[in-house]
Design a protein that fits this description.
The chain is mainly alpha-helical. The chain has a single domain, classed as Helix Hairpins (Orthogonal Bundle), CATH 1.10.287.1490. About 80% of the residues lie in helices and about 5% in strands. The protein contains 4 helices and 4 strands; from the N terminus they run αααββαββ. The chain has a 4-stranded mixed β-sheet with strand order 2-1-4-3. β3 and β4 form a beta hairpin. α1 (about 5-85) packs antiparallel against α2 (about 90-170). The longest helix is centred in the middle third of the chain and has 82 residues, at about 90-170. It starts with a helix and ends with a strand.
Length: about 240
């Protein structure tokens, strides 16, 4: 047998535990969202890095093209000057300069080829990063939508449970409710505990004989002398 007032407190305690759990879920929801957004930012950053590297390769390749163009223009100028000169030493000097420029061009073109190969190697990396970013974005968007829906559901449930708790609390003696609330806050959500095999299930200490008799009689609210929790006889 359980004292009716204690039965009411057990129901209120159940609602309060639900409210505490819902509050934790609401608190965790933004953390979950932030984690998802960080994951999305990471894949986006990887894609941006891959594209940036490809752009750097292209910029370097164009710089080399300009270097080749500049040397080709100088070769053309030397060729024209060579045709205009009648001095053997000047002719030989132009030939030497032209040869040196052609050697430089060959070296630059080798570097251009290396950059072209690097650009080709970068393409599948970009494609993979783009695929991963797209997949992650779609996944994160769905998960964030789920979180938003979850938040709305929790808030609705929270309002429902709170309304029920308020109704139940209005039927309990004010002093007893204050005692319960103080215990609930101090005892980690367990203000009302069962007495099973003469042991308080809140602090796991054996109750004194007169406390055991009082709980069994169920004529008044009885508390554990060790932890202060309100006791009821486990059915």
């Amino acid at each position: 047998m359980i004292l009716p007032a204690v039965t009411q407190l057990l129901v209120i305690q159940d609602r309060d535990r639900k409210l505490r759990h819902l509050k934790i879920e609401l608190k965790n929801a933004p953390i979950e969202r932030k984690s998802l957004e960080s994951k999305l930012a990471g894949t986006s950053a990887a894609l941006d890095a891959a594209k940036h590297k490809a752009k750097e390769i292209e910029v370097k390749r164009k710089e080399l093209e300009n270097e080749v163009r500049t040397r080709e223009e100088r070769i053309l100028k030397y060729e024209q000057q060579k045709l205009a000169t009648k001095k053997n030493d000047e002719y030989a000097a132009f030939d030497h300069a032209i040869g040196s420029l052609k050697t430089e061009i060959a070296g630059i073109e080798d570097r251009e080829l290396e950059l072209m190969e690097s650009a080709e190697a970068q393409k599948p990396i970009i494609a993979a990063a783009d695929k991963e970013a797209t997949h992650t974005r779609d996944l994160v968007q769905r998960q964030i939508a789920d979180i938003e829906a979850k938040i709305k559901a929790i808030e609705a449930q929270q309002q429902e449970v709170q309304a029920d708790r308020t109704r139940l609390a209005s039927e309990v003696d004010e002093d007893l409710l204050d005692t319960y609330q103080r215990l609930f806050d101090k005892k980690d959500g367990v203000a009302v505990a069962a007495l099973a095999n003469d042991i308080c299930q809140g602090c796991h200490v054996k109750a004194q004989t007169h406390i055991i008799h009082s709980v069994k009689a169920a004529k008044e609210v009885t508390t554990c002398l060790n932890c202060g929790r309100i006791l009821y006889l486990e059915p």
